[in-house]
Amino acid sequence: MGLAGSDPPGGAGAAFGGNGAAAASIGLAVLGALFFSASFIANRVMAVDGGAWEWSASLRFLYSLPIFFVIVAARGGTGPVLRALRARPWQWTVWSTVGFGLFYAPLCLAADLAPGWTVAATWQVTIVCGVLLAPLLYDDERGAIPVRGLALSALILAGVFLTQLGGHGSLSWGMAGGVAVVLVAAVAYPLGNRRTMELAGAGLDTFQRLLAMSIASLPFWLAVGVLGAVRAGPPPSGQLTGTALVAVSSGVIATSLFFAATHRVRRHPFRLAAVEATQAAEVVFVALLEPVITSSAAPGAWSWTGIAAICAGVVLYAFAGRTR
Questions:
Q1: How far is CA 183 from CA 75, 187, 324, in A?
Q2: Name one Pfam family in it (predicted).
């Protein structure tokens, strides 16, 4: 947690140079992937137990908002957050809703439609989405598509395909629907992350940006919560507990680590792509943990081949990023 909040406003530039910065950023992102993998498993468990996806989505952010507020307030940083929101309220609302709302709500809906394995594997499309969106978002060197990074992303996605092949062999209509909504999330997450990085600039650190995004996306989450109440009634006690654990593990720890990692390398296209690629490690963690926690079938030979390809792609990204 200390690492995630350690980049002071205006002080990230020192982290851009040198090989250590790239390796440290990738390390933070992989650690974040470990904590984020809990979401895929927990959301699936809550969905199987009858919990409404609307509550799984909205409660995570309703829980995490006061946590971020306490963290930022304890560091005396709420003033810059409020000033940033007042300066550009529309932009913060739109891109925070994209980066948080259109990212996490579809993932929770997908947990109703498909196993955590399918959701976690399909989610890795976000790796290439982040790379391909760059030319549409930037008009400087960050808009360049790193060819080597795209090739390594393709290797990782090939591994994802193999894990899917080994895990299911075919997709039902429900699984296909889950895949479709995850693709929406896969585009929204890097888009919202990169846009809010631009809005935050050097004026907000990682926790301040997360607080700003939580506040700006609050209308969306209240609307989703109301929808859940109308459709399914109040959340059961198990879902209240499960979403609280997800809020801390995924919403606070994982998101803080990942946002800190992307902030450190935000002006280096290849390193940013490398950090975003580490999200593929979530497939590995879910493959290892889901059978233990949910007593589901363990991955087969094809799945482990895919997992090996994913690991190879992430490792190659890490080494390639050290030379850029």
A1: 37, 7, 30
A2: EmrE
Q: For residue 97, what is the DSSP state? A: I
Three-state SS for 186-243 is: HHHHHHHHHHHHHHHCCCCCHHHHHHHHHHHCHHHHHHHHHHHHHHHCCCCHHHHHHH
Contact 78, 215 (CB under 8 A): no
Assess contact for 120 and 68: CB atoms under 8 A: no
Give the pLDDT of the chain (324 residues) as one tens digit per residue. Answer: 333 333 333 333 333 344 566 778 888 888 998 898 888 889 988 988 889 999 999 999 999 999 999 999 999 999 999 999 999 999 999 999 999 999 999 999 998 887 777 788 788 788 788 878 888 887 877 777 777 878 888 888 888 778 767 655 555 555 678 788 999 999 999 999 999 999 999 899 999 999 999 999 999 999 999 999 999 999 999 999 999 999 999 989 998 998 888 888 888 877 887 887 787 788 888 878 877 787 766 677 887 888 888 878 877 876 765 555
How much is the pTM? 0.81
CA distance 40 to 126: 15
Tokens read off for 209: 């940006």
> What is the C-alpha to C-alpha distance for residues 28 and 33, in angstroms, rounded to an integer?
9
Spatial contact of 107 and 47, defined as CB atoms under 8 Å apart: no
